[in-house]
Amino acid sequence: MYRIQTMNKISPVGLNRFPSELYEVGDAVQDPQGILVRSAKLLDLEFNPSLLAIARAGVGVNNIPLDRCAAAGIPVFSTPGANANAVKELVICAMLMGSRDIPGAIRWVREQAASGVDVSTVVEKGKSAFIGPELYKKTLGIIGLGAIGSIVANTAISLGMDVYGYDPFLSVDTALRLDRHVHVVKDINDLYKRSDYITMHIHYTEKTAHMIDADAIAAMKRGVRVINLARGEIVDDEAMLTALDTGMVAAYITDFPNNRLLTAPHVIAMPHLGASTPESEQNCAAMAVDTLRDYLESGNIRSSVNLPEMTMDRSGVQRLCVLHKNVPGMLANITSLFGRDGVNVENLSNKSRGDYAYTMVDLGSKVGDNVIEDVRRTANVIRVRSLEW
Ligand SMILES: NC(=O)c1ccc[n+]([C@@H]2O[C@H](COP(=O)([O-])OP(=O)(O)OC[C@H]3O[C@@H](n4cnc5c(N)ncnc54)[C@H](O)[C@@H]3O)[C@@H](O)[C@H]2O)c1
Ligand SMILES: O=C(O)CC[C@@H](O)C(=O)O
Known about the structure:
This is D-3-phosphoglycerate dehydrogenase. The protein is α/β, with parallel strands linked by helices and 389 residues long.
């Protein structure tokens, strides 16, 4: 039985993909071999030696200590694109809310009724406080043209917006999916100076922390509306509050509220709702469970954010999965041990990523436990697993 601990509420659509005869799954599972998580913070978690892999049902992995996991031979999986549509729809909603102060307008109507006024007699006079611009023919700047940014771009084009995108690492696949009317700029200042709306769709890392700071805001158009459904830490809150105060930024719509931000009138804050649709929760859970199972049962690494991607069709009778440091001589060191035992290698794959590498070896006959122990003891080997079929 594999033991899987859930660290957040995971959609049953995903959980039901674990066969009950093979998996014990739950939030109270002890010494798990797999962890399923959404946004729970695992940064300070001490990993149990039994832990083999972590699957993030989502895409932001700033809640997981990726380097520490890689060093311990724990692949971390994410679910690329699985929640992109949900976020895209909320971005469009955020632009509309920020333009026409829809949350303020709804609040005002309720306040009238609560204060005993007959609402129907005041709406026509009161509504002038909520006039705001249309999106049509306005300019949207998108920072990050990955799974979310690219579909936000295409949808905004279909709404009649002029779209500028900035992504220094734009993949060929994404570039091909972008509407041909999207202007991809090399200098982010070209986006800042033109945009009436700016939305960011990048990961939060050391490099993107406070990317939207006082200098970035100073390069923007006065009255810009900024949408942040990526991560709170990408924006310098103090700089944003100053810009809201001076009118440099007309509205800040964020999925990452904090008490300090809520002191400002032009902040529209939501409780991290970007991916909160049944469709997205189901997609993420199903993909996370499938990648986790594929690794536990077959050793395949797909959608990993910290170790090499590698899949190999099953062959032979036994598979050794060896996570090791990316240093010369490892393949020869490992395979020589099988030869010594007279075992034939049916198939072999090896891939590296940064400081780490992964080798999968399918064997024509079973090797003895002593050989597996020797592989484990080989210098620079981090983890060895043996799977049989
Ligand atoms: N609010 C939510 O519920 C919610 C839901 C999903 C994702 N997110 C956030 O959105 C982020 C992006 O998700 P995604 O699925 O689009 O990821 P993605 O990996 O598909 O896209 C990220 C893009 O950012 C680009 N990039 C990296 N550094 C950049 C930089 N300095 N400037 C511009 N572009 C840069 C990459 O090249 C990539 O194309 C996630 O990391 C997560 O933090 C939030
Ligand atoms: O799990 C969630 O609800 C949010 C996930 C989202 O922030 C992500 O990064 O994928």
